[in-house]
Design goal:
With 161 residues, this protein is an alpha+beta fold. It has one domain (3-151): GAF domain (Beta-Lactamase, 2-Layer Sandwich). Helix content is 34%, strand content 25%. It has 4 helices and 6 strands; from the N terminus they run ααβββαβββα. A 6-stranded antiparallel beta sheet has the order 3-2-1-6-5-4.
């Protein structure tokens, strides 16, 4: 599936009011499959207590299920409110190693208005795996996922008594 096809599929799912968890799973699977340099592709959702929690992902399991804002590349992206493309993680002081094989990492924020709700995190076993077009493609997916988050109806947990 191309990025254009993925964006179209995600937009269709949003319009059909699909569950956010399903949209995220499909997005990560198809994004991962769209580029042979993507060795690990996942979502981290930002919790209210400034902790990133791992959501759907494709690739080897990771010990980094929770990451504090400001820690590692993922946490730094949130703290600095910017996307981060690390061409060689061996030269990054704040890198949290998920795999000894990882050589580059891309973190793209998912924001609803000014509020960061999560991020797409991609690791590659290749140095400098993420060129300008790849970054733009992932940003397009992040923008659609922001609309998916925004479209979710909050669950009413109160009871009518």
């Amino acid at each position: 599936m191309t990025i254009d096809e993925l964006v179209g599929e995600l937009e269709r799912l949003i319009a059909e009011k699909a569950e956010l968890s399903s949209i995220l799973e499909i997005a990560m699977r198809e994004l991962h499959e769209s580029n042979p340099r993507f060795d690990w592709t996942g979502i981290y959702e930002l919790l209210p207590d400034d902790i990133l929690r791992l959501g759907p992902f494709v690739g080897a399991p990771t010990d980094h299920v929770f990451i504090g804002v400001g820690n590692g590349v993922c946490g730094t992206a949130v703290a600095e409110k910017r996307n981060i493309n690390v061409p060689d993680v061996r030269k990054a002081e704040n890198y949290l190693a998920c795999s000894a094989d990882t050589r580059s990492e891309l973190v793209v924020l998912i924001s609803v208005g000014d509020r960061i709700v999560g991020q797409i995190d991609i690791d590659s076993h290749s140095v400098a795996a993420f060129d300008e077009q790849t970054v733009k493609d992932v940003e397009r997916v992040a923008d659609v996922l922001a609309r998916a988050y925004d479209a979710q109806v909050p669950v009413d947990t109160s009871r009518d008594e």
